[in-house]
Amino acid sequence: MVISTNMDTEQLNNIAARLAELGHPTRLAIFKYLVKTGKNGASVGSIQKELGIPASTLSHHIAKLIKVGLVKQVRESRVLHCFPQFNALIEVIAFLQDECCSIDR
Predict the structure, then answer these.
(1) Cα(6)–Cα(94) distance, integer angstroms
(2) Hey, what CATH topology would domain 9-97 get?
(3) Could you tell me whether strands 42-43 and 79-84 are parallel, antiparallel, or unpaired per DSSP bridges?
């Protein structure tokens, strides 16, 4: 299988990793919630309360989203805030749309 794209291997690996992490229902729900919060993001506590995810489980899933660059986490005093990384999301969407409808069927 030949992938027709202008992206290099590292970029393709990044897109694939992001899609893989978003392929998990809990991580997808977390990311969707953060996207809805916009650039202000949300505290880990508010994510936990809104989605009803146990703290240790939430921490595990957020770490995976951070690892692939979809979420950034910042500590402000005793509170951890999570911010969606819209540039990473846009890269994934652009990759999926890159050659949309250009293949002859």
Answers:
(1) 12
(2) Arc Repressor Mutant, subunit A (1.10.10)
(3) antiparallel
Q: Say which residues have a Cβ less than 8 Å from residue 9's Cβ, sequence separation at least 6.
A: none
Task: Find where tokens 């402000």 sit.
Answer: 76
Q: Which residue has 């936990």 as its token pair?
A: 48
Q: What is the pLDDT along the chain (105 residues), one digit of tens a residue?
A: 345 456 789 999 999 999 999 999 999 999 999 999 999 999 999 999 999 999 999 999 999 999 999 999 999 999 999 999 999 999 999 999 886 766 554
Q: What are phi and psi of 95, to 5 degrees?
A: -60, -45
Assess contact for 88 and 17: CB atoms under 8 A: no
Confidence (pTM): 0.86
> Helices 25-37 and 9-22, interaxial angle, to 10°?
100
Which residue from 74, 66, 77, 65 is spatially nearest to 29, judged by alpha carbons?
Answer: 65
- Kindly list the domain boundaries of the chain, sorted by start residue: 9-97
What are the residues facing 81 on neighbouring strands?
43, 74
